[in-house]
Each structure stands twice: as C-alpha cells, then as structure tokens.
Amino acid sequence: MKLILILLLSVVINTSCKRDYSSQYPYIPPTDLNDGLQVDSIKSVGIDEELIRNAVGRVDNGKYGEIHSMLIYKNNNLVFEDYYEGHQYQWDAPGHFGEYVTWNRDMQHCIHSDTKSIVSLCIGIAIDKGFIGNVHQSIFEYLPDYQNFNINNKEYITIEHLLTMTSGLRWDEWGVSLGSIENDQIGIWFWEDGPMDYVLSRQFVAEPGTRFNYSGGDIQILVEILKNATGMKLDEFSKKYLFEPLEITTFDWWLKFPNGGEIQGAGGLKLTPRDMVKIGAMMLNKGIWDGNRIVSESWVEKCIIPYSGNTGIKIPGEDLGKVGYAYNWWTKSFTYNNENINMFFAVGWGGQKIFILPELDMVVTFTGANYDTNVHNFKILKRFILPAIN
Q1: What mean pLDDT is predicted for residues 320-343?
Q2: Averaged pLDDT for residues 312-338
Q3: CATH no. for residue 209?
Q4: Does residue 2 sit within a domain?
Q5: Residue 16 near residue 61, CB atoms below 8 Å
Q6: What local confidence, expressed as pLDDT, does residue 14 receive?
Q7: How far does CA 177 lie from the centroid of its chain?
Q8: 60-86 burial string, b = 16+ CB within 10 Å, else e?
Q9: For the residues 150-172, what does the mean pLDDT come to?
Q10: pLDDT at 304 over 80
C-alpha cells in the first residue's frame, strides 16, 4: 500500500510539473505607451512563445509563490510583459501582506534592496559630474556634521568600501530576523539620534576593504555623502540626473526616517516594472539610454566585476547559488547549454529583480511578495526563459 501511495504521489507531481499551460495563457505583445520603451513581439527576437506561456501558467497558478510581474526586454525591445494578483507590501501585517490587488503596468512596486543599486548609479553620476572627486576618498571628506565619529581609524573607510559593503563596521542584517530590533536594519529606526549616528557609532569588525558584510548602513552613509556633495537630497538628485533622463516620471522615495526625514537608501524606492526595465536597459547599453549618456561606461564596468574578495556569497532565501558583489550590483557567471553566461543584477527582498544578461542582449525583471518564503526567479529564468531563446 505504501509503495502504491508513493507511486501515485510521484505521478501527481510529475503531471503537475509537465502540465502544458500554453493554450490557457495566450501571448499578448506589450503596448507601445510612448514612454521611451520600444516594443515588439517575442517571436521577432527569436523567443519560443509556448515556453513563455507555460512559464506564465505556472506563475499565475502560484508554483513559484507570489510573483506580481514578469517582463522581458531583448534586442532593445520590450517583448513580454505580464502582471498577476498579489499583496501590496505592508511591514506590520502578517507575512508583510497588505491589500490584495491585481497588479498592472501603472502601479508602483516597492523594490526594496534594488534601491541600493539605484543609489550606486546616483553616486556614479555624481562622480561623472564632478560633485564627488573619486571613490578612494575618505567618507569624512563629505560628512562635516559627523566629524565626532572620525576616530579609531574610521577615516580609512572610503566611498568604495561603502559601495562594495566592505566598510568593516559591525552590522547584522542577514543573521537576525527582520522582525527583531536586534537586526540592525530594524534597530536603526529606533535610534533617537538618527540613522547616521547609528551607523557611524558601530565598531570595526574588520579592516576596511577586506571583508564583505551586507549592510544597509553603508548605503545610508552614501545617501548622506551624496546630499552633502551635491547640495541635493537623494530624491531631488535622482529625479534630475537619473529618472528624468530615463523618461521615468512615476517614482516614489516613500520610506523616510522619523527624526530628520532622511530617505532610507537601502530599500525606500517604488518604481513600476517598466521603469525597472529602463534601468536594466540603460545598464545593458553601458550607461546609455536613447542615445544619451546617463552614467559612464567605466561605472557600469565597476557594477559588473565583483570587488576583490566579494565572491562566493549566498543571498538568504534566493535560489541564485553563489554570487559576487560589485558596486552595489550583484554578479553571477553560470553555464547553460555548455556556454558561459555572465549576468549582473539588482536584488530586492521578496523577489524584486533586474537581471541583465549582456551576451544575450536581454533584461528580465520580476516583482513579487515572497517575503517569508524562498524566491525562485532564477529557476524561472533557467527553466523557461533561457530555453525559449532560439
């Protein structure tokens, strides 16, 4: 009897995995909204429509948890765009699930830690335009209000150390539940003297530049440096020098600290999935959008190549395996069909992704709400999207 049950269960699982959803989910090409994104069909860029429809069926039926959107940009065209039902983000709700909605292309999504990659672009642009000298400067050259923390060798922390999360300052974000004040990304909100005092008061656990440690605190220092160097807050600078040139008109720096109103740079941005694609497309084209240079090619290269020692990292809850970390962008090389594929990407809690695959001239983005469950965006990429490319 036990053997029969096992065999029946195996049949059910295999049938579920092999189920053909393609006839139930017809492909609809993206709409041209005159928003700067060129659109085309997936067939025009050599993508197998049936495989993508099968991916949609599995996503829509919850096979990969809660995914809210999936978009594919290839050969300089948006060729696939689809949205699903799911929960808006709400920190204090069970599972962080807020209102249940049907997502669409006009709705902004909290992109969480993808925000860190956006901050990196702003720092790169600030250097390009001469607001900041270079990444090797001490952070205290741009922190006039916090010179009291310039002690115990902290002057050796550079801007590059913040961009690569190698500041050496104690910070525990991955080792403690995000529901606990012991997690520094939560504790920073309850510090009476403000977020900068919280971060800069941390003690060293490593020499700057020698050890990767995932830290939203490092990003918060970058936000302050940008403000002091440019005379503009993050929302103002990003609007003028990044979003407006990319024809991004709907964005929201919604998360601000209660004392002082500083923008939370580690995860406080909302964008539409289409606008996430624009960020990816600009990076795919080495810093150029619609013929205009947004950020230098040399900065893009720093976002592609892992910083020395920043390899072999595993991101909690992600199916990515071992990855690298560059200038606030993640990196990964993997083999598919006996070919080496290099990828760099932004990652946000819950399944927010901007995957950029230069050899395939492709960007793939996801949004979702898998906050308390594992994220399988990379599995979808490898199981359906890559095999669909002819």
Answers
A1: 96
A2: 97
A3: 3.40.710.10
A4: no
A5: no
A6: 46
A7: 20
A8: beebbbbbbbbbbbbeebbbbbbbbeb
A9: 98
A10: yes
